[in-house]
Amino acid sequence: MTESDFGSGTGQDQELDTTVLIEDPGPEVPSLEDPGTEEVARVSVVFEPSGKQVRAPVGVNVFDVASWNAIAVDSTCGGHGTCRKCRVQILEGEVPAGGVDARAFTEEEMEQGWRLACQAAAWSDLRVHVPPLTTRPKASTVGVGRQVIHRPTVLKRYLELPEPTLTDQRPDLRRVMDGITDMASGADPQVLRGLPKILRSADFKVTVVVVDDILVAIEPGDTSDRVFAIAYDLGTTSVVATLVDLINGMPLSVSSMLNKQQRYGADVISRISATMLDPTALDSLQALAHETLDELTEEVCVEAGVDRSEVYQVAVAGNATMVQIALGIDPEPLCVAPFILAAEDYPDVRASELGIKVNARARACLFPALGAYVGGDIVAGALACGMDRDQRVRLFIDVGTNCEMILGNGDRLLATAAPAGPAFEAASIACGMRAAAGAIEVVRIDDSGLHIDVIDDAAATGICGSGLVDAIAELVRVGLIDESGRFVPDERAAELAPQVADRLVMRGQERVFVLAGDPITSSGVYLSQRDVRELQFAKAAISTGWAILLEEFGIEEKDVQQVLLAGSFGSYLSPKNAIRIGLVPDIAPPRVVSAGNVAGEGAKMAVLSGSERNGAHSLLNVISYVELSDREDFNDRFVDELAFPV
Amino acid sequence: MTESDFGSGTGQDQELDTTVLIEDPGPEVPSLEDPGTEEVARVSVVFEPSGKQVRAPVGVNVFDVASWNAIAVDSTCGGHGTCRKCRVQILEGEVPAGGVDARAFTEEEMEQGWRLACQAAAWSDLRVHVPPLTTRPKASTVGVGRQVIHRPTVLKRYLELPEPTLTDQRPDLRRVMDGITDMASGADPQVLRGLPKILRSADFKVTVVVVDDILVAIEPGDTSDRVFAIAYDLGTTSVVATLVDLINGMPLSVSSMLNKQQRYGADVISRISATMLDPTALDSLQALAHETLDELTEEVCVEAGVDRSEVYQVAVAGNATMVQIALGIDPEPLCVAPFILAAEDYPDVRASELGIKVNARARACLFPALGAYVGGDIVAGALACGMDRDQRVRLFIDVGTNCEMILGNGDRLLATAAPAGPAFEAASIACGMRAAAGAIEVVRIDDSGLHIDVIDDAAATGICGSGLVDAIAELVRVGLIDESGRFVPDERAAELAPQVADRLVMRGQERVFVLAGDPITSSGVYLSQRDVRELQFAKAAISTGWAILLEEFGIEEKDVQQVLLAGSFGSYLSPKNAIRIGLVPDIAPPRVVSAGNVAGEGAKMAVLSGSERNGAHSLLNVISYVELSDREDFNDRFVDELAFPV
Fold first, then answer.
1. Inter-chain contact A339–B169, Cβ cutoff 8 Å?
2. Within a 13 Å sphere around the CA of B529, how many CA atoms are in the beta-carbon half?
3. Interchain proximity B343–A174, CB inside 8 Å
4. Burial class (CB in 10 A: 0-12, 13-18, 19+), B277
5. Interatomic CA distance for residues B322 and A313, integer angstroms
6. Phi and psi of A363, rounded to 5°?
7. Do residue A344 and residue B171 have CB atoms under 8 angstroms apart?
8. What are the 10-residue block averages of pLDDT along chain B, 646 residues in total?
């Protein structure tokens, strides 16, 4: 995840996964690689009977919109158009019936609005009726178009055991283990504490919980249909929790909040610095991480009507600093040369060690890390994007204060991290703000003047990351910002773009470009010369990073077949403008796609499937880390990259 | 261990292991099977330079006396007379030099009193000078003459690691693990918490601690010569802790105390009943067990100058009730039919889960149990006695409120438990007391009258278990108690044993036999008719138990080649009198030997050697449990066994 994504929205917005942008769309769905759609617009979808309303990128299919907003839609194929079980009724809005629909429904049903959710692209606002579940799907589409077979390592089984007699004096634990020889090889000793009472109070009719071949809990009666896990994306800025029903693979509830460590600074460096200056800060930061995770746990459990003790596994994707702090491990060596991780992997951690109060025996899956700045969040993201499974040459970029990149194909992958700096931090931009109501998220200049889109159609109160990139890209395009990043003189501005030239004004000692309102008052939203400089530094660091990876890989910009922009910031960014300012390689804009919250997706995959979880560990052997800080050419290249492409 | 051994002494006395009674003594040592020595007398041995004074059974060699009182004597052969390193100087007392001494010392040295400790039998009071250790023994004599090779599963190694650089960015844990690939396959995640700081503050010069192939701790600098473990005998009555130096296998300090659970009753049944009547009692009992274990831990650590964090492993031998309560597991099913254990084994428990505050990552070895009344203490005892290694037919008896027995040879072993009742409880005998100063421990009647030995030569204030058995056996022998257990009428008493007949008097409504003082006042010590009945019930339960085992095994009393009396009670008992009252099979008295505190010995073996610890688990496969409570013939046989043999 981005460490500091002021492009990220709050709450549900972060879950608007746009994974289908990458999958080859079926014939009935208008091509998402249509250049006309590359500016990311949004539609509203209301699901009935819950009435839950969500925003989704235009053109995403209803199955995915539902899935990533924790609305259960029947499916056994995982959204591939083959099982024909994801029947929904379009109550409002237009969704043309396609060929697959014609094979799944009668004429009359289609007239009543019945469609297969996985075939129904949301090109406009919709209201959709979702029938209750009738099947248990065996797979889900998770991550970036990844089909994940449900094979969680948490298993339950209801047992009716023979009661002990003087001729059958097997110990309680042996009696239970004899009933599950096919699923468990050992037992957590903590299981014993309540065992005798549970067995006898339940007349030896109990449900066992087995995690990774170890018996971890025994519950009275038949609870075998209640098995839950929580996937966490533990970001420096935002933390997201998704409660997943392991019986059918469906996310049941999602919640997010700002990481409570914010008071120690917005980025990882500030937080590590705090631990270096104050010996008590590590404990405080750890406690704040635990509080954040635990509050989210409470929220998702309450929303889904799940008891905490029914959550038997958690997966946490976080960068190396967040994970080390959450475990109480001194993070200082991460931020001073030579940048050393405490461990690349944490094999056997309990959820409680992360402050997550779920079932006392629940284990936590933590993702391995490649380096101090390419942590478990990036490995989770690489898993979600199938970086080791796709033969195309792809470039994965997670934009943040620190920007992580992975380049390669299924055979060879290179990773690095570049210090992008605070450009994408709301705090470092004069009118910067998070992608919340009032933020300018789209900026366009045409002959008639300046056009902005503001989130929730509110009055503009600031600008978020995607708006910033748009604004600068457009100003470079029309010529008001020159190649070196300077605002051009007024007379030159009036000559090049008379329709917006009068927006270039002085604010105190500084020239600014007015985006909305009056820049002299607090209601004005503007772009300052310093803001442009901040963005230049960020994009130069990032493009130096991927340029070095391209060189190491032995290819050129044009050879990149796909750029995946990870994190919420990425999903709000205009590909065309990202290319224009040189943030990503210069390839056809439709090949630059947003991958969504891939760290969170990776965490979900880890709880849905033991083999996917193992796959995350295998990535360590496939990805080579390229250290930039000891490269002699880094500074020269960085300076070269500061200019905007013309 | 005995669950209620009022035969047991307090403190150091419990450690007077008499294991050599069983080993074949070397040619220079007078045979311990000499019938003249069968009454267990004691000598005093003072060790210099510490000045520590201990009591030991007559004829035990100095090496063993030293060893079981935590006094380190050089040795590499473990007391077998081959290494000639256990040189000590006899300062006071008589120890004739033997043939092995002549090969180890010059004439002059022998004249100065130098002897090999393993060859020097203590036939009289001695004062012995022990030189400081010069070698690290590779084996110890532990248990009942068992030679245990030191191969603890706790290992330390000092590492000087290369410091990280930009070209060697291995994570901290990987850097450490790369230095111990031959000794560790994984790491406890808790190790990570302090890892970065420890490595850097110690300039990457650290000592690793590996337990069972898992890295459990990293310490700054070279601490590789400080590796300790504690073995606990967690008895219902007494708890004993022995701190062992795992570098040389020597016990460094020993401490014992009454189990703090006493306030809930003297035996396991009272304590389990408490948990059934009061839902808070289990927590209280658990806390009391933890307090007992932890106070002993403090005592042995302070005495040996060892920091608690230097103790990396513990082993606990206890009966099933004590272990379940210490782990907080409901013990109720242990005491109601069909008598079910929560588990026969506890593979992966931390010391902290037993309330033992040593190194936070220390593991606890708990012995497996065979049945609700044949617990880990008995398995530890069977390990210490080598029950599965000796081809002789042997009967192991641990006398207590509940009496556990194992019969067999190395190929086949049968175990059972019999409810002996409170006869060996001080509380149930009119003048009963623990084997402390003032207790009558030996009773003898000859033509001149009654003779008693009182512990510490104090005025008699009560009678302990061994004295009780002696008194009744002698009274049966002279005829004052008849076959049925009744005191004979006065006139018959005067006829049969005139020298003591006047000691048979009325005390209130009850006939009693006066052992010391005036039975009407509180200073008198006597044996009542009820006391005799109590002992009859106990011995009948025990002899019914082993008689059924003999029958199941298909042999007769005379086929038993050795009887091992376990627990402190056993080591104070007169074999001749135990046979006379029918407590043990009628075989030659020298074949009835005391085995000492075998549960504690087994626990020591478990920390000294991983293979011995595994051996304890293998015993589960070798020993078959015979349940007495569902045998239809038990009651009839029990009634038959009530009579005394004539």
1. yes
2. 14
3. yes
4. exposed
5. 33
6. -95, 155
7. yes
8. 38 35 34 42 86 82 78 71 85 89 89 91 92 71 79 93 94 95 89 94 96 92 96 93 93 94 90 94 97 97 97 96 96 93 89 95 93 93 91 91 90 91 74 88 93 91 90 95 94 94 91 87 86 92 95 96 84 86 93 88 94 90 88 90 88
Rounded to the nearest angstrom, the minimum Cα separation between B42 and chain A is 43
Smallest Cα distance from B192 to chain A, Å? 6
Tell me which residue has tokens 């004539």.
B646
Q: Do A342 and B197 touch (CB under 8 A)?
A: no
Cβ A192–B340 below 8 Å, yes or no?
no
Say how many residues make up chain B: 646
CA–CA dist B513, B505 (Å, integer): 6
Q: Sheet harboring A205-211: ordered strands across?
A: A154-160, A205-211, A214-220, A186-187
Q: Facing residues of A267 across strands? A: none
DSSP per residue, B566-626 = EHHHHHHS-HHHHHHTTSS-SS-GGGEEEEESHHHHHHHHHHHBHHHHHHHHHHHHHEEE-
Question: B79, B88 in Cβ contact below 8 A?
Answer: no
Residue A515 phi/psi, 5° resolution? -95, -35
CA dihedral angle for residue B539, residue B542, residue B548, residue B552, rounded to 10 degrees: -140
A340·B169 Cβ contact <8 A: yes
Q: Is the dihedral of CA A520, A522, A523, A525 positive or negative?
A: positive
Q: CA nearest B331: which of B359, B362, B373, B295?
A: B373
Contact B172 A340 (CB under 8 A): yes
Kindly tell me the burial class for residue A60, based on how many C-beta atoms sit within 10 Å of its own C-beta (0-12, 13-18, 19 or more): buried
What residues of B are in contact with residue A168 (Cβ under 8 Å)?
338
Closest-CA distance, A234 to chain B, in angstroms, reads: 19
A contact test, residue of B161, B176, B216, B340 with most A CBs within 10 A: B340
Amino acid at site A244: V
In three-state form (DSSP H/G/I as H, E/B as E, the rest C), the secondary structure along A440-460 is EEEEEEECCEEEEEEHHHCCC
Dihedral angle computed from the Cα positions of residues A369, A373, A377 and A382, in that order, rounded to the nearest 10 degrees: -80
Q: Which of A172, A332, A342 sits opposite B342 (nearest CB)?
A: A172
Q: What are phi and psi of A52, to 5 degrees?
A: -65, 130
Among candidate residues A242, A124, A135, A238, the one with its CA nearest the CA of residue A601? A242
Phi, psi of B279 (to 5 degrees): -65, -15
Question: CA-CA distance, B394 to B575, in Å (whole number)?
Answer: 15
Q: Residue B194 carries which DSSP code?
A: G
Q: Which helix (H) or strand (E) holds B101?
A: helix B99-104
Cβ contacts of A374 on chain B, cutoff 8 Å: none
Peptide bond into B338 cis (omega under 30): yes
Conformational region of residue A109, where left means phi above 0, alpha means psi within -120 to 50, and beta covers everything else:
alpha
Q: Do A172 and B627 touch (CB under 8 A)?
A: no
CA distance B85 to B77: 8
Cross-chain CB nearest to A189 (options B168, B333, B348): B348
Predicted local distance difference test score (pLDDT) of residue A14: 36
Question: Interface pTM (ipTM) of the complex?
Answer: 0.77
With beta carbons less than 8 A apart as the criterion, state whether A608 and A244 touch. Answer: yes
Are residues A333 and B196, on separate chains, in Cβ contact within 8 Å? yes
CA distance A376 to chain B (A): 14
Torsion angles phi and psi, residue B438, rounded to 5 = 100, -10
Whether pTM exceeds 0.95: no
Q: Determine the pLDDT at residue A366.
A: 95
